Amino acid sequence: MQHLQVQPDQAGMRLDRWFRSLFPHISHIQLVKLLRKGQIRVDGGRAKSSLRLEAWQMIRVPPLATPDQSKHRVKQEKRAVPPHLQDMMLKSVIYEDADVIALNKPSGLAVQGGSKTDWHVDALLDVLSDKGERPRLVHRLDRDTSGVMLLAKHRKAASSLTKAFAERETRKTYWALVHGVPRPEQGDIKLKLVKRAAGDGNERVRPAEDTDKEAMKAITRFNVVARAGQIFSWVAFMPITGRTHQIRAHALAIGHPLVGDNKYSLPEIEAGGELPNKLHLHARMIDMPHPSGGRLTVAADLQAHMAESWNLLGFEPDDYEDAFPGEES
Q1: Is residue 73 in a domain?
Q2: Among all residues, which ones are annotated catalytic?
């Protein structure tokens, strides 16, 4: 059996569509038969093909790979990782113990592969193998979001971390640079979100009406940390829910999109001038139950492009105090 986790960008998909995207060689009739026999289960229970999936649900799937696919996987795993990427991965490690590895993921590095992605975190995990055991992904960050990303060093740790993410026992803080100054300067953004096709043929996440059956509950807590006049603000965000592009879509919805966000922007807002034209969103800190007991708290320094912007605007990362003291996600 294999256990696959629903990623945030897959939330809201029907189970049958999710399954076809991963196992295109399995017919719908075969899928229905597997579901009817209980061989495919969602969070341990039986499910229908029409089930709408939620982020971090665990789906049990029996062995289905064809011989060709198995050969392809082995071939991919044996690709030689270029030295500069090996060096990048090793330098990205900011914390490690017997159960967990924490990376400061660079902006621009995808977590998993796609049609236009050659190298990504998942393809580079062998670089961090410990005694032959390959680290496991337990959550994701967007390609252009930098910051703390956790890996499990073994199956038991993966199960523990995955459970904590699924049950929202994690406390995550993101730093962002936004256009303008949000008013009020702190609060909760409570806007349901839904994926819809945009004019360029790609999907965008946008606010949805309560009556929209595909709408997903989304809550983002925010606090303005510092201002550069009325032009830019350093904002700390704490996502209470974990929807795809949630912070970016919510920031746009309140009229203060993230600097460098070419996907969720307003036409009347000009680019950041001298600031680097890259997404200014950084997973600064994560606090959650440690697989071996106690708490796991990891913080990641700003990546180069955001550190440059902070310097230009006179923001001091070392002066930061917890924007959400005593709060739990």
Answers
A1: no
A2: 142
